[in-house]
Amino acid sequence: MKLLSSSIYRYCLLVISVIMQSCVSANISKEFENATLRFSRGTPMPSSRAYMGYCNTSKTTFVVGGMNKAEEHYNTILSYSPKNDTWNEVTPINIKGEKLINTTISSGSMFLFNGTKGKEDDPMASIDVNVREVAFNNRVPELTNVSLNPQAIHKSSIAEWKGKVFLFGGRIDDETYSNTLFSFDSKKKEWKQLASMPKQMITYGTIVHGKLYVFGGRNEAPIDEIYMYNIKVDRWVKVGKLAEPIVDATITNYGSNIIIFSNEQLFIYNTDKGTLKRYHTNVGKLVGNGMTVSEEKLIIFGGVKTNSVGKEVYSSTVYTLDIQKILQ
């Protein structure tokens, strides 16, 4: 009886702590800056591409697949060294030529989820059900199918934490958005379904200190809420609202800060203080781009840019910024 009471007591304390965090975090201070963050330009990618997978280590950024203006799909994995400002291909790896691949690094390997050759806005297009592991640190890199995705889905999002990969949201078909959250153990290659998101939606998220934060997105309408999932207690709470919906974004994190790029603006959410800052940039309007942090630099690359006359142009441009400039 004492053991049972002790377990219930600890669980109640965890739930109370989540509720208290929700109440505190809901008071978000939105600081809108007039200043423009000016990115420098690095060596361009070997080819213009958008809607690619991407991930990073502390020293290297990887670009996986994607497509070009002619809707040709790339089957290569590229690596970028910010220190040397150079691009290389991870050989002899050739993936299926796909775009919209969810990519992350976990337990020392790269993992690829989803991916499609279908039209960008066609959620009914065939989604790759294979989970692929890329041993990119091997003397001869290897690509292996290691599992099947229990819910391969269009425009799902991805985040990694301590050997677990979390996939959430996305679009199932023309009329149905997903609110599912799954975790994948990158060592055991095992899946687990977790607490469903508060809404069915495409959204953008990353994990800081054991908590998954998701920002905006869309379903039948644009979304302006910020939700947080506590991995320890398997529970979602709403922690705030954006000043305006974010419907297309790339996201990464550095320390306690979450960095979001959307519509040529950069948003910095500090998870410790619950503050949200917004900056203008000189990057321009991009969609389908990638964003990572490697070698203490924030790196934005690729995507589809709208030029001064409203024409869409596939980009190979690489923009870099000292990460400390946005944390002051």
From TrEMBL:
Name under which the protein is recorded: Galactose oxidase
PANTHER family xrefs: RING-TYPE DOMAIN-CONTAINING PROTEIN
Gene3D superfamilies named among the record's database cross-references: Kelch-type beta propeller (2.120.10.80)
Keywords, alphabetical: Kelch repeat, Repeat
SMART domains (UniProt xref): Kelch
Native species: Flammeovirga aprica JL-4
Domain of life: Bacteria
UniProt keyword annotation of Repeat present: yes
InterPro entries: Gal_Oxase/kelch_b-propeller, Kelch-typ_b-propeller, Kelch_1, Kelch_domain_containing_8
Transferase in keyword set: no
